[in-house]
What we know:
By secondary structure, the chain is mainly α. The chain has four helices and no strands. The longest helix has 27 residues, at 3-29.
Amino acid sequence: MSKISVAFFAAAVLYALIGMCLGIFMGTSGDHSLSPVHAHINLLGWATLALMGAFYGLAGRQTPTRLAWTNFGVSNLGNLISLPLLALLLQGNTSVVPIMAAGEILLVLGMVIFGVAVLTVGGKPTRV
């Protein structure tokens, strides 16, 4: 398996563990006010990064390596900015919105980069 695929899966596992811990915390405390953060960690961190890692693993040698690493960095940076700030926003701190918006733009950019990678791999002839 390629290093990029392993990196995506490793990051996905970290997000999954954070999401699980947050879920346990909310369940034991009875305070579910951070449920949107929990959902976004699981969707944008665990599920999305795992799917990207699976794609790059399946693409194998056709993976556009530089683009894939850019995808990894941009997507993770977007998560690391947006997810904690979403928690602060839900707790009433509206001053985080401009910075959070930058993180959200990075998340969209990460998905666009992934789309370009998919189209790049899809446009290459398959070797058997």
